[in-house]
Write a structure and sequence with these properties.
about 210 residues; alpha+beta; three-stranded antiparallel beta sheet; 5 helices; 12 strands; globular
């Protein structure tokens, strides 16, 4: 009977965990250069609980860091930068869309850049687009999604915008040639948005488990 009681308690906690953000995680996963990321389970999805900060693809090839405006605006290959090219402003790396869909893969092994449908599924589980942002910004639980404001880099390369106001995460979906979809949240706004941007914009990346 005692063993049965333990089993029932375990089962209840497990079921409860599958319906609450941050209850069941994968502890940590690492990328090629050894950066470790906390993870979070939300519904049936596993997400990184931190923004991607790798400088390498899965196979060990380096992703170029383009600080120069002309290189950033003209490339059709993967690249990254810090906000205003200054790591003291934010540790999050901003990637162009080409880096997120390169065949060498930017996310840790067994993880990938989410699709629009992955983000839709997340929204749906959390109650819809009108209340998702507040839940993703929670940081009290060590395994929470913990979204932070990162801003982005314009396609021309010269301008950076709004690190104090919003975050935009790339999806793997190209909307039409040269432009792709992102999942966006704004400060003090409970709503989430799907927006379209040039593939040469620099944005944050969150990975989802395969």
């Amino acid at each position: 009977m005692k063993e049965m009681s333990k089993y029932i308690i375990f089962l209840v906690l497990f079921i409860k965990g599958t319906f609450l953000i941050g209850q069941i995680g994968l502890n940590y996963v690492s990328d090629y250069e050894g950066n470790k990321y906390k993870t979070v389970k939300i519904g049936t999805q596993y997400w990184l609980a931190e923004d991607l900060i790798t400088s390498f693809y899965q196979n060990g090839d380096e992703i170029p860091n383009f600080k120069e405006n002309d290189k950033w605006s003209s490339t059709k290959n993967g690249a990254w930068c810090f906000y205003k090219n200054n790591s003291s402003l934010s540790k999050t790396k901003l990637y162009n869309w080409y880096a997120t869909t390169d065949s060498r893969k930017i996310c840790p092994i067994n993880w990938r850049v989410p699709t629009v449908m992955d983000w839709y599924k997340l929204e749906s589980f959390l109650g819809g687009y009108k209340m998702t942002a507040d839940k993703l910004r929670r940081s009290g639980d060590t395994n929470a999604f913990n979204s932070t404001l990162t801003g982005y880099r314009y396609e021309e390369g010269e301008f950076f915008s709004s690190i104090e106001n919003y975050v935009m995460y790339w999806t793997s979906n190209e909307y039409y040639k040269g432009y792709s979809r992102s999942f966006s949240m704004f400060k003090n706004d409970s709503l989430t948005y799907f927006t379209t941007h040039s593939n040469n914009n620099g944005m944050a990346v969150r990975c989802i488990k395969n």
